[in-house]
Amino acid sequence: EMVVTQSPATLSVSPGERATLSCRASLSVSTNLAWYQQKPGQAPRLLISGASTRATGIPARFSGSGSGTEFTLTINSLQSADSAVYYCQQYNSWPLTFGGGTKVEIK
Amino acid sequence: EAQLVESGGGLVQPGESLRLSCAASGFTFSSYAMSWVRQAPGKGPEWVSTIHGGGGGTAYADSVKGRFTISRDNSKNTVYLQMNNLRVEDTATYYCAQRSTFSGGSFDYWGQGTLVTVSS
Q1: If you average pLDDT over residues B100-111, what whole number do you get?
Q2: Are B86 and B101 in contact (CB under 8 A)?
Q3: Among A34, A53, B70, B118, which residue has the least CB neighbours within 10 Å?
Q4: Cis ω for the linkage preceding B41 (within 30 of 0)
């Protein structure tokens, strides 16, 4: 089973600053990786697919990069509304697997 | 825009069964694979199962294989998850999610979820 590991577990960032989240896959997933945002009491929401393609309606402040086993989600000009847990997920092979999440807190 | 509405969750005892439903609208249902993803309290999401748009192919997580069955009725724009022999560890919020194809793609749209609690 493909293991997906996220770091850090928690990230505390000031408004207006940049947040950098990491995701690592145990084997290459090419660019078959997605990022989701989840706020308390809500379903996850797709932010990025194909490692770097923003989903419909996602602000340009959110950007994804990487391929193979190393991926990054960058949130520029952090806003209070960005406080959430962020998950990465690989869809290169079955079973489809998620990382453990990074909680982004606003200072 | 796609809308997904789950129903059928509830409190059951270990060993019992439950059937979840997910009603879809806003897109051509039969053109998309559909999945179930669950999330235990305080944990990350876990993929459970996926079914092909035409219903001809299915995939399951090892943790539910042999106990859960995914199906769909394209005439009703609905996907189902039949859950048998439920265990305490199946307690979670169950989400249905749209996926572009059976064997590829992210979970593009999610429902609001339905809570399943397995407890004696």
Answers
A1: 90
A2: no
A3: A53
A4: no
DSSP secondary structure, B61-104, as one string: -TTTTTTEEEEEETTTTEEEEEE-S--GGG-EEEEEEEESSSSS
Please list the residues that pair with A35 across neighbouring strands: A48, A88
Considering only the beta carbons, identify the residue of A43, A94, A98 that sits closest to B44.
A98
The predicted pLDDT at position B18 comes to 98
Output the pLDDT for position B103: 82
Token output for A70: 């190393």
pLDDT(B101) > 90: no
Decide: helix, strand or coil at residue A103. Answer: strand
* Helices and strands, number each (H, E), in chain A: 0, 11
Chain B interface includes A49 (CB < 8 A): yes
pLDDT in tens, B20-50: 999 999 999 999 999 999 999 999 999 999 9
Query: Smallest Cβ distance to A91: which of B44, B104, B113?
Result: B104
Strands B114-118 and B10-12: parallel
| pLDDT band at B102; cut points 50, 70, 90 | confident
Burial A23-41 (b: 16+ CB within 10 A, else e): bbbeeebebbbbbbbbeee
Q: B107 and A36 in contact by Cβ < 8 A?
A: yes
